[in-house]
Amino acid sequence: MASTQGATAAAIAESIAAINSGPAQEGDERYCWVCFATDEDDKWAPWVQPCNCRGATKWVHQSCLQRWVDEKQKGNTFKRVSCPQCQSEYIIVLPSMGALANVLEGIDTLIKRISPFLTAGVIVGSVYWTAVTYGAVTVLQTVGYEEGLALMERAEPIVLLIGLPMVPVGLILGRMIRWEEFILRFLQTKSFSVRKFPMLSLLLPISNMDYDPLYAGSSLAGGGPGGTPPAAPANPLPPGTVVTSDPLSATRVLCGALLLPTVSSIVGRVFFDSIRNNFQRVLVGGFAFVVVKGVLKIYFKQKQFNRKKQRRILDYTEENKQKYGVGHSHQPAQGQGQPGHRHGP
Question: Do the record's keywords include Transmembrane helix (predicted)?
């Protein structure tokens, strides 16, 4: 063993000495492609020609190449490394460290390989048992403590292990159904007319979508004499310019879904205390909360839609700059909107 280690070390030393002592062939000056240094910059630095490259990129400092190989291997000593130019595999010689050190290195490599899978398993297991616990708490909260315990005691273990974690999954999937968006899209389409639903105009801020004098082809924009088509507006807005839908937020969906049973229980106890059955009371409270919340969201989004529909971008003139305070450090006067947020038509 000792003789093998000595022979390997001697071979490496001879190779480095031969490279350092040999002059540059064909009169070319050696040029390190890692640090861009030459023989004049560092006369004592060991050089190596590790690949089939020719010309300026065939030489590299031994120390520079060692650092570059370490970056590519990222702690895996046995990972193969190739030249980035000619794709030749580097011949890397590692002296033996002994039997005990080799065993420890094998164990260390094995741990590095299985650690990501173990971490993923721990995370998945934690999420699963958290979902099981949440499902059990939700059952106790909605059905009642004594009834919920009796129900879970009578159930099969496999049913509990599968059914309880499906409770938060079902709540999250249900929360992702944005039924308010479908109603808003219907109210904001050109096919919807407030004259067909006069009661909705009393409850929601709905205006006649067909009337907008700045939209091209507006049926109520007015026309010329004799029923001639109206003149094209100066600044026509194409359909779909006004968008009020919000992107789906994962954190908001998660919080809203997981808090729904608790909110439903509170609403049921406050407003529907006459219902004796705890499960029915929670269901009614949750349904009432979802409906009221959805109506308020529709009202709020429709208000935003009407405001955006009336928003206009003005010409950059001196009069508009002075009127709305654009380009000045002072605040706009009372009653004027902030620059870029003009209120009113």
Answer: yes
